[in-house]
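Fill in residues.
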């Protein structure tokens, strides 16, 4: 039940009262003397108004409800139903199955002047300044939601990750090699059957090197995902097994820009959670409120990093908001659990690929047996 919807005629997002006022102003319909929404108006709205997120049409009007004393008990709003009475929103629309009228999901951030965290309150106050000074408008915020919806629809994957892969990835993410940009170990280290002629040859050590070398291309695909993110991924994937999900990796460049701006704000404006300084953002993620503000500033500047930083400086340096409640809105953090989602996608890809056992102990045993067999075959062939 969105409180606002998009009018094709007025090319604007409006709530029910604003829409009726505009409609009556241009005399498209007659004003009902009792203040009711007339049948003609309902029919017009049904043709004209679409969902601001998924663009489904056929809006139904739900009038404001008042109790006997005249007190407002329900805001007027729009409802989108199919002919058979089911929810007509796209399954990925933020209003699908949602009777609250507010966006749902882990991506939402409540910028409230009464929020529990000092950081969220501070960000909420900055958002209020931004709205007051028209640095960003509700249309731009809506456009950002629309952009996120379209990205969600465009990149999908099925969560099919085997749980042991997360254990394996977490072990790999702990290794320094996963954090460095080093390529795979030099091929010169590869095993040669002739080495087995050394009576003191360390078969076990050679097997470990063999497995490490073989796994290196997979470890590189971690691409900076931290052990903490892999652990979050394991929990999320267990809940969402078999589901069709958004491949957030499609927003990689946007995430890098938002993380960069969030770090700038945390360091230079001292805006961060006390326990999560900027240097920890890469491993544990930046606070949602900061990412939501960064995403908004970047969206507003067309992802121009310098312009987004300047816009932040402009907000931060000006006077405080006259009405800090203006920022009492639900913001969007498109990058919630971003690296954990990258880990889920990687684990799902690896599940689909054959040839990986993800049990390092078994792998080393198998490799040792294989090296010894190669040495025996080579010897039997007369040491060619
Ligand atoms: Zn919708």
């Amino acid at each position: 039940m969105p409180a606002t919807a998009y009018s094709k005629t007025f090319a604007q997002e409006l709530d029910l009262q604003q829409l009726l006022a505009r409609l009556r102003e241009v005399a498209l319909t007659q004003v009902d003397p009792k203040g009711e929404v007339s049948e003609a108006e309902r029919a017009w709205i049904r043709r004209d108004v679409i969902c601001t997120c998924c663009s489904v049409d056929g809006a139904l009007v739900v009038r404001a409800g008042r109790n006997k004393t005249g007190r407002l008990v329900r805001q007027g709003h729009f409802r989108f139903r199919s002919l058979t009475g089911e929810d007509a929103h796209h399954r990925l629309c933020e209003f699908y199955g949602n009777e609250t009228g507010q966006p749902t999901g882990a991506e939402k951030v409540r910028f409230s002047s009464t929020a529990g965290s000092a950081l969220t309150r501070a960000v909420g106050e900055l958002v209020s300044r931004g709205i007051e000074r028209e640095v960003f408008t509700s249309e731009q915020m809506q456009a950002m939601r629309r952009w996120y919806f379209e990205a969600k629809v465009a990149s999908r994957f099925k969560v099919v990750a085997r749980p042991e892969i997360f254990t394996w990835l977490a072990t790999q993410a702990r290794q320094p090699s996963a954090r460095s940009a080093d390529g795979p170990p030099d091929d010169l280290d590869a095993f040669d059957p002739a080495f087995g002629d050394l009576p003191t040859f360390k078969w076990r050590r050679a097997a470990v090197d063999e497995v490490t070398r073989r796994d290196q291309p997979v470890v590189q695909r971690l691409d900076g995902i931290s052990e903490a993110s892999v652990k979050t991924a394991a929990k999320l994937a267990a809940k969402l097994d078999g589901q069709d999900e958004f491949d957030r990796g499609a927003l990689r460049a946007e995430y890098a820009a938002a993380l960069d701006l969030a770090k700038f704000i945390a360091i230079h404006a001292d805006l961060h959670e006390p326990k999560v300084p900027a240097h920890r953002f890469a491993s544990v993620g930046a606070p949602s409120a900061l990412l939501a503000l960064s995403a908004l500033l970047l969206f507003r500047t067309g992802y121009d990093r310098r312009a987004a930083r300047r816009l932040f400086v402009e907000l931060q340096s000006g006077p405080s908001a006259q009405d800090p409640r203006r920022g009492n809105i639900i913001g969007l953090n498109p990058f919630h659990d971003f690296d954990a989602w990258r880990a889920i996608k990687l684990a799902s890809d690896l599940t689909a690929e054959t040839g990986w056992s993800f049990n390092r102990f078994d792998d080393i045993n198998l490799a040792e047996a294989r090296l010894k067999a190669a040495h025996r075959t080579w010897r039997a062939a007369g040491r060619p």
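The mean pLDDT is 85.
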